């Protein structure tokens, strides 16, 4: 695992964007794994800037979002369908038909999860998976105790994650209780992983992921198993590393 510690959150976004850009330049039909949340926003902003400047072309790039809430209307601004459209698809100029987000409304959620896995495979697999990390060490919505081999499935959000994400909703109770998320096994199959974290509130999770034992107690520790994982963090997020 490669660890890159940078002086500022802005630089984290810029350096991580360069990793993604490199892949897209080499392979214009690259398949991106897309995280939501605050952490990757600086990456998307920098990629959008480069696309606007004519340096990058995302028109043939495919995207697969990591996760989605179950039962949250796609018209809700915090549904990941809406977030991906607003922060990735439009600003970068991806073709909407080439961007997939897990279905949080399927009558048969298990079948929809299996279909999502099949769609990733049919696209040739994910070239670069962008990841954030939860304060409890989750990646995607793979909460602590998630199976290290898990695939896309329904998960219950922990009280900690619902509390962390309450900032995006009108009240803590409005945060959905369940989600559909790519599994840890799905994430590990991506050819390259780029995890970004900024701020002191991520320091403990980063230390556990990078230096702790490989353990379902810290789902992000699965990055230790990947041959091409890069963790790009600011000094605050690095502050608990030994
Ligand atoms: C969301 C996701 C989550 C977030 C994590 C950190 O798609 O994958 O694992 O990356 O909850 O969220 P932020 O970046 O908002 O702190």
Automatic annotation (TrEMBL):
Coiled coil: none
Residues the UniProt record annotates as site (Part of the allosteric site): 146, 153, 155-156
Protein name, entry field: Glucosamine-6-phosphate deaminase
Reaction(s) the record says it catalyses: alpha-D-glucosamine 6-phosphate + H2O = beta-D-fructose 6-phosphate + NH4(+)
Enzyme Commission no: 3.5.99.6
Pfam families, alphabetized: Glucosamine_iso (PF01182)
Function per UniProt: Catalyzes the reversible isomerization-deamination of glucosamine 6-phosphate (GlcN6P) to form fructose 6-phosphate (Fru6P) and ammonium ion.
One MF term in the entry's GO annotations: glucosamine-6-phosphate deaminase activity
NCBIfam families the UniProt entry points to: nagB, PRK00443.1-4
UniProt source species: Gryllotalpicola protaetiae
Pathway membership, UniProt: Amino-sugar metabolism; N-acetylneuraminate degradation; D-fructose 6-phosphate from N-acetylneuraminate: step 5/5
InterPro entries: Glc/Gal-6P_isomerase, Glucosamine6P_isomerase, Glucosamine6P_isomerase_CS, NagB/RpiA_transferase-like
Annotated keywords: Allosteric enzyme, Carbohydrate metabolism, Hydrolase
Record-level GO BP terms: carbohydrate metabolic process; glucosamine catabolic process; N-acetylglucosamine catabolic process; N-acetylneuraminate catabolic process
HAMAP family, alphabetized: GlcN6P_deamin
Similarity-based family: Belongs to the glucosamine/galactosamine-6-phosphate isomerase family. NagB subfamily.
Residue ranges of every copy of the Glucosamine/galactosamine-6-phosphate isomerase domain listed in the record: 10-229
Gene Ontology cellular-component terms listed: cytoplasm
Top EC category: hydrolase
Catalytic site positions: 67, 136, 138, 143
Regulation affecting activity: Allosterically activated by N-acetylglucosamine 6-phosphate (GlcNAc6P).
């Amino acid at each position: 695992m490669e660890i890159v510690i940078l002086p500022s959150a802005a630089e984290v976004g810029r350096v991580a964007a360069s990793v993604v850009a490199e892949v897209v330049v080499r392979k214009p039909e690259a398949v991106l794994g897309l995280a939501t949340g605050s952490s990757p926003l600086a990456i998307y902003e920098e990629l959008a800037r480069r696309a606007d400047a004519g340096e990058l072309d995302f028109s043939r790039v495919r995207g697969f979002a990591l996760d989605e809430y179950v039962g949250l209307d796609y018209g809700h601004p915090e549904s990941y369908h809406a977030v991906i459209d607003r922060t990735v698809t439009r600003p970068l100029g991806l073709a909407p038909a080439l961007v997939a987000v897990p279905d949080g409304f399927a009558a048969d959620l298990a079948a929809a999860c299996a279909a999502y896995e099949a769609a990733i495979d049919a696209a040739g697999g994910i070239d670069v998976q962008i990841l954030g990390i939860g304060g409890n060490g989750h990646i995607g919505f793979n909460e602590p105790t998630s199976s290290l081999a898990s695939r896309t499935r329904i998960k219950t959000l922990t009280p900690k994650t619902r509390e962390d994400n309450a900032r995006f909703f009108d009240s803590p109770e409005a945060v959905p209780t369940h989600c559909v998320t790519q599994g840890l096994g799905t994430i590990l199959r991506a050819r390259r992983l780029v995890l970004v974290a900024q701020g002191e509130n991520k320091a403990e999770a980063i230390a556990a992921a990078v230096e702790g034992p490989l353990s379902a107690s810290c789902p992000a520790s699965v990055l230790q198993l990947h041959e091409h994982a890069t963790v790009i963090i600011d000094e605050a997020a690095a502050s608990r590393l030994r």
